Amino acid sequence: MRQIVIWAERRDGRIADVSLETLGKATHLATDMDGSVGAILIGEQCRTSAEELFHYGADRVWLVEDNRLDLYQSDLYARIAAEIIAEAKPEIVLMGGTSIGMDLAPRVAAKLRTGLTAHCIDLYIETIDGRDQLIQVVPGWGGQMMVKITCPDHRPQMATVRPGVMEKGTADLTRIGEIIPFAPAMCEGDFRAKTLEMVKEEEKETPLEDAEIIVSGGFGLYGSEGFEPIERLAAALHGEVAGTRPAFDQGWIPESRMIGQSGKTVRPGLFVSVGASGAMHYTTGFLKAKVIVAIDRNPKAPIFDIADFGIAEDISRIIPGLIEKLKNQ
Q1: Is residue 201 in some structural domain?
Q2: In the chain, which ranges are E strands?
Q3: Which of 25, 59, 178, 313 keeps 20 to 30 A from 305, CA to CA?
Q4: Number of structural domains in the chain
């Protein structure tokens, strides 16, 4: 049976959300190609995490337990992952597009002598010339179009997936699977570069990925002072403030608040875009929001093509009225 393998990233003793999102996508892809799903899990005393992977759709887990591997070790993780993949011979390998995943994936691809597509925002199976191919979708040409990439000749087909793009799915606590212990040969010489400690930055604000309501401003606000009504609207909605790449480049918002191809991907219940024309490199960051509201003075702005509700009017006339209405609710 053909299979898909994901790498399950662990941080602080738990599976990263992006790995569960990737696993959710893998289960859908496996159904389309009549295959199964496996996961590679590396760390210290991580067997309980294997059970979680079964609950979210994995059929088998290659388990590598060693206290020296609790923190990410670049060379060893790459070698171990490549050895498991070479033995399993999957059709597809998926990894989360985190800072660690973006370091690990190209190393593994090089060892396996196959291609790698990074920052995917969609994946699906399509039959081409009688053979199932993984279609890997990424924003291209400065975010002006979606580019479909295939790897027709080499296997496995490898891709990294942006955090927040795929849906995690629902855990089935009755699911069980097969644990395959894997004991790689290791010596101290293998630890040429060691991760000694991982320090989590203190979060002074709600992560955008967790926000249920987001109000995002663009270059159409014309200056940092333009973000004051955005902040007031977000406060009235009990939401979070975000912005576009141009807003970040101008210093109006911090990088942690940037939405789009080079920023965050979010899926809130409500996304309000204000003063942004709607370039694709921006809209890819929130396409899966449940409700999108766009406010821009240009009625022909591309943002209105994807918005559920649109207001083509001067921002200075609309925002104060919205805030007043919300206050009176």
Answers
A1: no
A2: 3-8, 10-11, 14-15, 36-43, 60-65, 92-96, 116-120, 122-128, 131-140, 145-149, 157-161, 178-181, 213-217, 240-243, 270-274, 291-296, 309-312
A3: 25
A4: 2
For 227-284, write each residue's pLDDT tens digit.
Answer: 788 888 899 999 999 999 888 888 888 888 999 877 888 889 999 999 888 888 888 8
Shared-domain flag, residues 170 and 308: no
For the beta carbon of residue 67, count every other beta carbon within 10 angstroms. Answer: 9
What is the side-by-side order of every strand in the sheet holding 145-149? 122-128, 131-140, 145-149
Alpha carbons 129 and 146: distance in angstroms, whole number:
22
Q: Give, in degrees to the nearest 5, the angle at Cα 32 between 30 and 38.
A: 0
263 contacts 238 by C-beta, under 8 angstroms: no
First and final C-alpha spacing in the chain:
57
